[in-house]
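Researcher: We're reviewing a set of sequences before deciding which ones to prioritize for further study. For each one, I'd like a predicted 3D structure that I can look through quickly. This is ABC transporter permease. If possible, include the structure in token form so it fits the rest of the review sheet.
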Amino acid sequence: MSAAETVPVPATVPREAAARRRPSTGVLVAGGWLAVVALAALLLPLLPGFDPLHGDFANPAAAPGPGHWLGTDAAGRDVFQRTVAGARASFAVAGLTITVGLLGGGTLGIAAGWFRGPVDKVIGFAADLLMSVPTLILVMIAVSLRGPSLPVIGILIGLFTVPAFTRVVRAVVLSLSERGFVQAARMIGTAPLRILVREVVPHVAPIALTFAFTATTVSIVAEGSLSFLGFGLRPPEPSWGGIIAEGRTTLGSAPWISLAPAAVLCLTVLALNYLGDKLRSKGGRG
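Model: Here's the predicted structure for ABC transporter permease, in token form for your review sheet.
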């Protein structure tokens, strides 16, 4: 067959593969929103003149405008700056929550799924017991005794995510322990700790990190709820729930005080949930 008669190979397959690898518009929007909120929370407080506690007493409850992009609250404090500062509080609590949940729940889940038997029963009973406790009520009691602070709130919320992480990790480890590569490692006499570190943990980590998106939304909503109820950071320290609570008495005359942090909170939770769902569906197809 001559070169002129050669049948061309269609290039649709590589293009379709590249399209599948390309992030969707929703993922880009959600990731972009989270990046903007995170960068604002990290960088804007470093700028000169940023002071979420400073009150412009000449403009109390001022509507959004050039001087105050999201308006001011009843004390003349800039709502935009307070919303940005509130993001730092929410992300700090989320970071502590995920750290405690991943380390505690991951360790317990691996132990329960690997050793099984009495170890699994004891850990399972402890997880069920902790999940049966009304979380917010217990956290409010603990905060009342210890005092409201970001470390206390973050660690307490993190403790209540440990059972969920434990169950997720345990289920993965139970499945992996029956897989051929794990059985083969056992048959050749590989030490259990080496199998866990080299074979089990690398497969568990992506699933646990995917679940961390859900735990992050839980921690942000829980911190906002505690602050709204008066068990979060003490005023005038800003947090999303606290700012929303401060503006509820002026919803009729100055709705922007509550609506601005509420909108940021809702959009952040929505973005986290969307990215978490996408990661779980991608993992399921894999």
